[in-house]
Here is the input.
Amino acid sequence: MDARINLFENEIAAAFGKRFANAALVIHRSSLPKATQELVSLRASQINGCGFCTDMHTKDATAAGETAVRLNLVAAWREATVFTEAERAALALAEEGTRLADAHQGVSDETWAQVRKHYDEDQTAALVSLVALVNAANRINVIARTPAGSYEPGMFDAMTS
Here is the structure.
């Protein structure tokens, strides 16, 4: 598969990507657990069919020590026993926040209550921001047809300042 446009070589896309990566730093530096960040990013990417982001978040999670069992079960997290209650709340928020068009009320009050039960104010803000950011990244890469498979953990570190 060939990309429709090389987002890394185009001047406008690269400038936007740098600002996008800097926005992601706010989330990455938050107290929201890193494992939760990767699980949420992976699940949204799976739902949106973003191969590039699925590749990236799987590899980043693996590099951070995530197990293959948990990564393989993210798509079926409701039936899996390997996720904490807090992670399950975050994954529910990721799904509902990604599938906004599928539910007239967006994120349910039940899911929101579970998120608030497990995450403090800053972590909740980071989680909401992460769901928005990963969905935007998915849309950019799906539209551009950015191919999956070539991502290396840390390859975007130089983009942040």
Summary: The two ends are 32 Å apart (CA to CA).
